């Protein structure tokens, strides 16, 4: 019985954690959506793949221009 209660409590906590993480992830996507679009436009303009190396080039461009 005690094991069942622990499992139920663990399930509830895990579900709450997952819901919170999903909510935060959605907020961050909305918050940085314009930045993502600008990065994608930079990659399209310079015929770059959307990857980490392109992100480094984009950030360098932002800092130096």
Description:
The chain is 86% helix and 0% strand. With 65 residues, the protein is mostly helical. It folds into two domains: 1-31; 33-65, no CATH class. The longest helix is centred in the first third of the chain and has 30 residues, at 2-31.
Salient structural properties:
mainly alpha; 3 helices; single chain; 2 domains
Q: Briefly, what is this?
A:
The chain has helices at 2-31, 33-45, 52-64. The chain has 65 residues and is mainly α. The chain folds into 2 domains: 1-31; 33-65, no CATH class.
Strand and helix layout:
Layout: H1 2-31, H2 33-45, H3 52-64
Poorly predicted tracts of residues = none
Work out the number of β strands.
0
Choose one word for the global shape.
rod-shaped
Determine the strand fraction and express it as a percent band: under 5%
Mean pLDDT, as a whole number? 93
Radius of gyration: 20 Å
Order of helices and strands: HHH
- Report the end-to-end length measured between terminal Cα atoms: 65 Å
């Amino acid at each position: 019985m005690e094991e069942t209660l622990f499992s139920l409590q663990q399930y509830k906590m895990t579900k709450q954690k997952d819901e919170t993480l999903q909510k935060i992830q959605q907020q961050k996507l909305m918050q940085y959506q314009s930045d993502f679009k600008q990065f994608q436009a930079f990659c399209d303009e310079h015929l770059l793949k959307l990857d980490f190396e392109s992100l480094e080039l984009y950030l360098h461009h932002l800092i130096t221009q």
